[in-house]
Amino acid sequence: DVKVTQSSRYLVKRTGEKVFLECVQDMDHENMFWYRQDPGLGLRLIYFSYDVKMKEKGDIPEGYSVSREKKERFSLILESASTNQTSMYLCASSRQHAYEQYFGPGTRLTVT
Amino acid sequence: AQSVAQPEDQVNVAEGNPLTVKCTYSVSGNPYLFWYVQYPNRGLQFLLKYITGDNLVKGSYGFEAEFNKSQTSFHLKKPSALVSDSALYFCAVRDRYSSASKIIFGSGTRLSIRP
Q1: What is the number of other CB atoms lying within 10 angstroms of the CB of residue A110?
Q2: What does pLDDT average to over chain A?
Q3: How far out from the chain centre does Cα A10 lie?
Q4: Please, which residues bridge with residue B78 across strands?
Q5: From chain B, which residues contact A within 8 Å (Cβ)?
Q6: Residue A82: what pLDDT?
Q7: What whole-number distance in Å separates Cα of residue B11 and Cα of residue B31?
Q8: In chain A, N or C: fewer CB atoms in 10 Å?
């Protein structure tokens, strides 16, 4: 079974803090994704990576950056957390030419 | 531009009855279509996909979906609902020739099965 793990299930941070969310997949997938999920808005793509050190901005990259130094690990960084970044963050991975994505359990981030 | 719509925020069904969760889409070319399910406090799980071929697609947990090109729909169905099917369901679409990153998710439909 594909396994995608995320470093924290719940996280509470203060405004202005730098926040790191980590995601690890164990199936040698080329593609990795970071989404945020908000009620009524579905999933919105923050960043996408198709290879080590390669990244593409998604629909809502402002206020976020990413790092992919190893194939299995994809980190999302909030440079200076703000209250409007309170959300559920989902990581996913897929094979390069595959269709479906495999999701981690999510990190519920609260910024106070 | 691609888009996907799930017109119902919530669907309520009695256990044992058939269920349908609706999805319509818009893409410029031919679509890849997906359904995912999210149980409380969990990530999304892949249920089924339409890529090509037979319009009726069978997936996990007894779910199926029918691709209807003329109506641009991909409704999720199950003949007999279980209480354990209660969850949040997402439809997703991307154009056949677009990047994997160009997948668009619907806003989700909460399915509630009453005993």
Answers
A1: 13
A2: 94
A3: 14
A4: B19
A5: 9, 32, 34, 36, 41-46, 49, 51, 90, 99-101, 103, 105-108
A6: 97
A7: 25
A8: N
Over residues A21-39, the pLDDT tens digits come to: 999 999 999 999 999 999 8
Q: What string of DSSP letters covers A42-55?
A: EEEEEEEEEETTEE
Locate A15 and state its tokens: 């405004």
pLDDT digits (tens, 9 = 90+) for B63-81: 999 999 999 999 999 999 9
Phi, psi of A83 (to 5 degrees): -60, -30
| pLDDT tens-place string over residues A80-96 | 999 999 999 999 999 88
Cα torsion at B14, B54, B102, B97 (round to 10°)? -170
Phi, psi torsion values for B84, nearest 5 degrees:
-70, -10
Given a cut of 70, whether residue A2 has pLDDT beyond it is no
Classify strands B87-95 and B24-26 as parallel, antiparallel or unpaired.
Answer: unpaired
Contacts of A84 (CB under 8 A, 6+ apart): none
Q: Do A58 and B42 touch (CB under 8 A)?
A: no
Q: Which two tokens stand for residue B66?
A: 């029918």
